[in-house]
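Structure tokens please, single chain.
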Amino acid sequence: MTLDTPSRFPAPGSARAARASRAARAARALPVAAASPAVPAAPAPSADPPDPPDRAATAPGRLPGPRRRGGQDGRSPLWVWMYHSVSDPSHDPYRITVSPRRLDRQLGWLRARGLRGVSVAELLRARAAGRAAGLVGLTFDDGYTDFLEAAVPLLHRHGCTATVFVLPGRLGGDNAWDPQGPRKPLLTAEGIRAAAEAGMEIGSHGMRHLDLTKASPAELQEETVRSRELLHRLTGRAPDGFCYPYGAVSTAVLAAVRRAGYGYGCAIDAGPLTGPLALPRVHIGESDTGPRLHVKRLLHPVRRRPVLLDPAVAPQTRTAPPPSGPPAGSGGGDGR
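Here you go.
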């Protein structure tokens, strides 16, 4: 298991991970916080003992994080954080759940270092314009109801936005693709609209959370094109972003996402496919205290490839008439 990959995802096999193994072993020796119980949305600032000090980031005369290779300039990898559920992580065998209290501290860690979390579309626009210094992309996969109930209030508290990747083929359903662990409810059509109205970017995670590298041509069309059409009807705006379930991407899948009209795609570590349609991300979990976040920041430019962006194709803020047809979510259930 690497620092970046939760257990339901394949571990990266790139040479960059091997080069970073010594630093990763040091990171594993850092203190790991115990799982925190779930707390109400937007809890008051915690009175618990603080995380262990991030000495490398706070030593006199030193800037937090890498100085040359870790920023958001055009030559360094974009730093995009990957979250999933924000609730009680106690019974999560996949380690993709972070407690609201831990999320609050992680966003506070960014804020204390002059960094701000933003949606991926905002990050890409800023990067294309040369204004991305100090910005970190925040993403939440699967579209759980706890994103609206727990994450959004905390994002607002810290002056952040984020991208939530939702499943229009499972509106109001649950995470049936995870055979172990608790059932987690997914956003309804109304919940997705509420997230958009709260200033969050809505992206597509496909229709049903399938491994697209194993999908048939018809399934691939459904997961990319159909999901974009449904979200366009639901929100009044065609999503710019697509997120590959399980982080699984191939040349054929990437081409299908491009044909469907998406401006960018989010992966985990896409290796040679890394680019605007396969952006690298780093997993952030319950164990990521300040020192671990600092180490991940140091490792990121070693483990991930830079993404060169053309300003002419950066995501734009736009609203277009939705395609004709019945409103998304009118059938209820999982949308099938």
